[in-house]
Amino acid sequence: MTKLSKIPTLINLPEIVGGHFFKAEFPKYIVAKISLGSESKYVLYVNPGSEDDHLTLEEELKGLVANQVSGAVIECVGGGRIAYAPGASDSCIIGITGKSSLFGTENKDNTVAMLKAAFPHAEKIVAF
To answer: Which CATH number does 3-127 carry?
Structure first.
């Protein structure tokens, strides 16, 4: 187990079980590259209960990572907004959109892949 494996790929993204997914409508998210020596990984971070700006999200993520892995370097590579809608049966639809005015647009294909791995029951996960 590597030190960065302690950090989940999706941080603060609640499990989708019908009903409400977020307290804030279309909350902002960031994607960051976390590096420690030669090891690195990408994570998606959202604070589902707030409308914080992307800089605040970056500061929150840095605090969370510092508590788990000392010496890690965090580079924000983009952000946007995330949306959720109930789908058929126990399924759902997740969409990511927009860009961060501070960090720009991340690789949306990579973000969709992270979400698909975490939510295999989702009917559709799209970037628009």
So the answer is: 3.50.20.20
Distance CA 29, CA 27 (A): 7
User: What's the CA gap between 109 and 128, in Å, rounded?
Assistant: 11
**Which pair of structure tokens corresponds to residue 48?**
């589902």
| Domain boundary assignment for the chain | 3-127
23-60 per-position pLDDT tens digit: 556 788 999 999 999 999 999 998 776 677 899 999 99
Sign of CA dihedral 57, 62, 67, 73: positive
Query: Can you give the pTM of this predicted structure?
Result: 0.86
Q: Record the tokens describing residue 5, joined without a space.
A: 């494996």
Alpha-carbon distance values, 63 to 59, 72, 74 (Å): 6, 11, 10
pLDDT (tens digit per residue) in 52-70: 789 999 999 999 999 999 9
Q: Which candidate, 26, 46, 48, 10, places its Cα nearest to that of 94?
A: 26
DSSP-derived 3-state class of residue 42: strand
